[in-house]
Amino acid sequence: MPLAYFVDEIKSPFVINDIKKLAAKVDVIYLFSIDVLEGKEALPGNVIVFEEFVHWKSFKPLKIVLVNLFSIISIYLNECFALKKLLPFKQSIALLASNIYKAECIKDKLNSKFKAPDTHQSISTFYSFWFYDCIYLAWMRKKGWIEKAITRAHGGDLFEERGSLSGKILFRNFQGRYLDRILSVSKTGTDYLQHKYPNFKEKIETVYLGSPNHEHLNPINNGERFVLVSCALVRNIKRIHKIAEMLQLIDFPLTWYHIGSQNLQAKNDPTIPIYIDNVEKLKLKTNIEFVPKGNMSNEEVMKFFSEVPIDLFISLSEAEGVPVSIMEAISFGVPILSTDVGGCKEIVTDETGILVPLETEMEVIAKKITEFKTSHKNTAEFRSNVRLFWENNFNSKNISIKI
User: Fold this and answer.
1) Cα–Cα distance measured from residue 148 to residue 171, given in angstroms and rounded to the nearest whole number
2) Does the CA dihedral 249-251-256-262 come out positive or negative?
3) Which residues contact 284 (CB under 8 A, 6 or more apart)?
4) CA 201 to CA 176: how far, in whole Å?
């Protein structure tokens, strides 16, 4: 059975892992992606890549609107009726037109590939990794060009009230009507969508991403310095600047490794100057050692987790789905301290570490880390149970996706 798979870029290890898992279930995957320069070498042999499949230079929006005028107006009015409010007209029509054109380009690409008049005769299932915008898949399903349309839903592409997405996600009712399944990576996301869109709640289910088994427990730290690790791009939503602020309140020897770009040249992110200032202040703390690791490949990160003793992994994000970085950390038995956002409470429990409300003051978090240092959660027995929790809930080998 062939599968069409849609994702913007494939460099993220959780995308590669998802593709590998699906590739083991189907004969061939036709991968539609605008950027495969990073990660292409990691793809399984039965993945065929289509990079340039939408020819935007040939896009004539007025023609698309005129040809599909009745359907476009119907979709727009039905969505307004479902939401009981008027959507921005020009933005909505432009969005529909661009998605219809994208759908037509996909259909033409596949028909050219298979020399078939109907796309569904060649590939029955179409799958999107992100739920940001699956209007093109819903349109293809509506037109009968495909037999099945599935999307995953994470965090940034799911919770519509987030600042970056507010007012930008449109036509969810249209998508829900024609998509066959929506696979949320968290129970929190499933509950959110089912409550917000009860008319298609039966199509929404939870399927965790999971992470691979690297067959290692993180080594016990027998040194004098407590080791704290964070992993993310430094940006406002990840709140790495708050970690640097919190560490100013720690009075015992501690080494903080941060994995990921410090993003110091980023513009329009008000937290970057705060991060820089807080890191400078840490230099005055003789008991704190800060080691920025920068960008690392997933293989390098896994090697780091298998070799460098880590007492605690920390995430103070203001929004998440179920973080892959936390899944990977607990797969090595590393305890977690995390904010209670998105689906984090599904992975950070009393069995795996410490969960704190998003609004928790840094003084409280510093105190919890201090208490953790001498608690039962900083023991070999607890770390073994952290690993066991991962094995029972987030081992990707044990998580099945029905296509």
Assistant:
1) 19
2) positive
3) none
4) 9
DSSP string covering 327-345: HHHHHTT--EEEE--TTGG
pLDDT of residue 224: 94
Could you tell me the domains of the chain?
Answer: 53-206 (no CATH), 226-397 (3.40.50.2000)
Tokens 């005769």, residue located: 121
User: Which pLDDT does position 245 carry in this prediction?
Assistant: 97
Of 207, 239, 170, 201, nearest to 343 (Cα)?
207
Low-confidence ranges of the chain (pLDDT < 70): 35-39, 115-121, 162-168
Output the CA torsion sign for 371, 377, 380, 381.
positive
What angle in degrees, to the nearest 10, is found between the helix axes of 89-114 and 69-83? 130
In the block, tokens 């499949």 appear at 53
Contact indicator for 79, 28 with CB cutoff of 8 Å: no
pLDDT tens track for 225-279: 999 999 999 999 999 999 999 999 999 999 999 999 988 888 889 999 999 999 9
Return the H-helix or E-strand segment holding 152: strand 148-153
Strand (E) or helix (H) holding 194: helix 187-196
3-state class (DSSP) for residue 67: helix
Query: In the numeric block, which tokens belong to residue 374?
Result: 């001498």
Q: What is the DSSP string of 213-267?
A: ----PPPP--SSSEEEEEES--SGGGTHHHHHHHHTT--S-EEEEEEB---TT-S
Burial profile 285-309: b = 16 or more Cβ within 10 angstroms, e = fewer: eeebebeebeeeebeebbebbeeee
